[in-house]
């Protein structure tokens, strides 16, 4: 099982090393760019990822979106594990 808060911290640290001036605008821009890459991968012919050969390109791009969201959450001091747990419980009550 993944410790989501640890993954969030690791992702933030990696992103901060690549871009020391990381701010919320850049973080949101990265989420958008990753969404575009996922859309491109989805409409293209399925293929293996160039960066992670054990993944399909669509899997890699979806992971990139999630990791970019985790970076944003950490930058905004959001306990994403708590937020996801609460939101998931709410969603269970929806019809």
General description of the model:
With 95 residues, the protein is mainly α. The chain has one domain: Orthogonal Bundle (Helix Hairpins), CATH 1.10.287.1080. The chain contains four helices and no strands. It has helices spanning 4-18, 24-43, 57-75, 80-93. Helix 1 (4-18) packs across helix 3 and helix 2 (24-43) packs antiparallel against helix 3. The longest helix has 20 residues, at 24-43. It is globular and about 35 Å long. The relative contact order is 0.16. The model has no long low-confidence stretch (mean pLDDT 94).
A few lines on this structure:
The chain has about 100 residues and is mostly helical. It is about 70% helix and about 0% strand. It has helices at about 5-20, 25-45, 55-75, 80-95.
